[in-house]
Amino acid sequence: MTTPLANEPPPLHHVPPHDHKPDDSGRWFRRTLAVMAGIGLALAAWHLQQLLLVLFASALVGLMLSDFAALLQRRLRLPFALAIAAAILIPLAALATIFGLFGTMMVEQFIHLSERFPAALAQVESWVRSYAIGDDLISQLTNYAPKMEQVVGIVQATLANIGSAITGFAVVLVAALYLAAQPRLYIDGLIAMLPSESRVRASETVAAVRASLTAWLKGQAIGMAFVAVGTSLGLWLVGLPSPLAIGLVAGLCEFVPYLGVILVAVPTVILGFGQGADTGIFTIIALVVVQQLQGNVVMPIAQSTFGDLPPVLTIFSLIAAGTLMGPLGVVLAVPLTVVGMALLKVRLARLGRSSPLTGG
User: Fold this and answer.
1) What does pTM read for this prediction?
2) How many degrees, rounded to 5, is the angle at CA 77 between CA 75 and CA 83?
3) 327 neighbors 342 (Cβ within 8 angstroms)
4) Which mean pLDDT values do the consecutive 10-residue runs of the chain (360 residues) have?
């Protein structure tokens, strides 16, 4: 057995080397800032949701004008400046011609409709009261009727909303003209603000969203035109007054699926029953036939070419938009859902997966 010398140093124990990791405080600080910025951006978007909806509506109308200009440019071989001018002037000229030729008649029809509606409503009430259960139902509803002060408040709020709607509509039109005239200026400007490695993906995403919105607008235009013509023709055959006015409103309201049908059907059916039980029944039949043809024949043909959203998704998007964003949100709920679905498809395509809702 050997003994260590007195001046020999003690043996060194083997100490494993430590992994010297860099300080993570800077990375966590940047992540915290990013999360706080995201929360702040979300809160700002929530408080500015009406402004963002107006901006989206302007982009949607601008897309309509831009696509129409592109169509004129392809078919007529026009330069872009002349094509965009024609895309703006042709709809304005068409509207001026329509209102010049049919404006007086349509105003008379709407006036006649407003004059006939109270009498028709009174006749329907009298018919319902002829039954015991109907009389009890109307008596119960009368107890919940708003008082005069409430009616005045509702009228004032409605007039204020109409004024705001007119102002918003004017803003949307002016902004849409600028967006349609120079679409690349704004799109390229936004993409240029992104990091260079993200610009290609951003361009692809914008192209996908534009294609989805264009396809949806084409299918929607076909459905709206069919409803307007079919409703006018059906109500004319039934003998209902003001068929052209009602058909025009029905076509415009078709922009908001399901809800627009209800808004038109309720007063139209009341007007029909005001002229008699037979007229009311035939009015219901005419409206149902038009909606069935539109939903089961016209729109499936359009969807096979342009694509569409699942009906359940459309219904819940309307409910969610109305709850969170009010009337303007309801009007824009479906195109907003189209944008969301397009973004989802792009994301899933990059992940190599397919959408469970669309299969694309």
Assistant:
1) 0.69
2) 85
3) no
4) 54 52 67 83 83 88 86 85 85 71 60 72 75 71 58 56 73 85 82 82 87 87 89 88 80 80 81 76 89 82 70 82 83 88 84 59
